[in-house]
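Now for a concrete sample entry.
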Amino acid sequence: MRDFLEITKALSDVNRVRILMALNKRELCVCQITELLELAPSTVSKHMSILDHARLVESRKDGRWVYYRLVSEEVKPLVAGVIEWMIENLGDDKILLQDDHRLKDILDKGCLENRNSMKKMI
């Protein structure tokens, strides 16, 4: 029951649902999630902590950057079911469609932290 309650708590916020949908089929850096949601890094960090606590996401650190992805289906099949359910029910949601379009632009530009580092070098 603990897993169920943690997952439902994590899904009770629109920004966390947006994060999960953005992570579907891709890994994102925290800076990319921050840029997508247009939230303060501390707010995104809190959301990621809740998603991590619910075991919906996993992270890896690469230098100064932290990347998140959905937990693998082999580790947690329930997550695959949750994401599938969200896609089926929210696939035509206006906010999520806008997010998908914006995310393509964000990914094309590369990580915000990397862009800022490059500007400092020039």
